[in-house]
Design a protein that fits this description.
It is built from 1 helix and 37 strands. With about 350 residues, it is mainly β. The strands form 11 sheets. A 6-stranded parallel β-sheet has the order 1-5-9-13-16-19, with no helix packed on it. Strands 2-6-10-14-17-20 form a 6-stranded parallel β-sheet, with no helix packed on it.
Length: about 350
């Protein structure tokens, strides 16, 4: 058996073969964990999906994000003559959530939202779904049918807002979230800190700055957080610059100011962030406390040494610390995940 973990797959295509998929398990007991699959396309296939569990497999599927899996086949997950236990996944805008073909599945703490269909079962299959947010509803203990209130789905942020109905709504007998609270539904739990607001002062220079969001705030609009900034100058980077109106935790941005100054931002402390990096250059920001780059958790070794850069009036320079409220360039040799955590 294998653990298939921390992979990012985007805008791919599979087809012209049955069975097929982006992650395929054949007669095995694989753990499929913390993967991101965005916009997978499938064609000229029948038994195919983003994740395919086949031929006597007995797999664990957890903490995966699958978005816009469409085309031929079964969308997010298909199981054929197999079994699986699945929990804390987020499936959004897919052709289908789960499809069981002579297979049995147990699902809990999931979010399936915006999909054409949620579950397909043939006559030889079964599924038990509990403590999950299923659009359109599904019979089972603890299930709900409600907008999960993602932070910014149009920008690819499927974390939960503070008033999401999925917070503390997972199976109370499952493992608690890292913040010590009852499990949330979905791939990304909402960190419930002390609840006591703190303030962070962010200094900025005249002209262009690299900035980030160092706290959990109710209003993340750049015009609210940085009222002295120049309108329509907030840019994110994703294989090119994109004009934005709000900031997302962990993302870095360009923002322009007419004059140098400082701003106080109030909110709840961010003690941990897991960031998804693409191969090449990425713009990131950090947590609520300064973090030495040697403390960045990089299990896949994807950060290229010497490629974390800050920006000041003197231009780009290598940095030793990720400072709250600032943005940084970082280069990765492959797609994957890094974690920033206050130790």
């Amino acid at each position: 058996s294998l653990t298939i973990k921390n992979n990012r797959m985007e805008n791919g295509y599979v087809g012209f073969a049955d069975p097929s998929g982006y992650i395929v398990s054949v007669n095995s007991e694989n753990i499929i964990e913390s993967n991101i699959i965005i916009n997978p396309s499938m064609g000229y296939c029948w038994v195919c999906a983003a994740i395919s569990i086949l031929d006597g497999s007995n797999c664990t599927i957890r903490n995966n994000l699958i978005v816009q899996a469409y085309g031929d086949g079964y969308g997010a997950v298909v199981a054929s003559e197999s079994q699986y236990v699945s929990n804390n996944n987020t499936f959004v805008s897919n052709g289908m959530g789960y499809a069981n073909l002579s297979s049995d599945g147990t699902v809990s703490n999931d979010i399936i939202y915006g999909s054409s269909n949620t579950v397909y079962l043939d006559e030889n299959s079964s599924i038990e779904v509990t403590y999950s947010d299923i659009e359109g509803g599904w019979e089972g203990e603890g299930n709900i049918d409600a907008d999960p209130l993602f932070v910014s789905p149009d920008n690819g942020d499927f974390h939960l807002q503070s008033d999401s109905p999925c917070i503390d709504a997972g199976d109370p007998n499952s493992s608690y979230d890292p913040d010590g609270t009852i499990a949330d539904m979905g791939a990304y739990y909402y960190h419930q800190g002390s609840g006591v607001p703190i303030e962070i002062i962010i200094d900025y220079q005249s002209d262009w700055n690299l900035v980030g969001l160092p706290l959990e705030v109710e209003n993340a609009s750049y015009t609210y957080l940085f009222p002295e900034s120049i309108e329509e100058t907030l840019y994110s980077f994703d294989d090119g610059y994109n004009l934005e109106t709000s900031l997302i935790q962990g993302e870095g941005y360009w923002l322009r100011f007419g004059e140098a100054g400082s701003i106080n931002i109030s909110g709840i402390s961010i003690n941990e962030l897991t960031l998804s990096l693409s191969e090449g250059w990425n713009l990131i920001s950090g947590i609520s406390t300064p973090l030495n780059i040697s403390d960045i958790q990089d299990p896949g070794g994807i950060i290229i040494s010497g490629t974390i850069y800050g920006f000041t009036s003197g231009g780009y320079s290598n940095t030793e610390n990720i400072v709250p409220g600032k943005g940084y360039w970082v280069r990765a040799n492959n797609s994957g995940f890094i974690t920033l955590i206050d130790n």
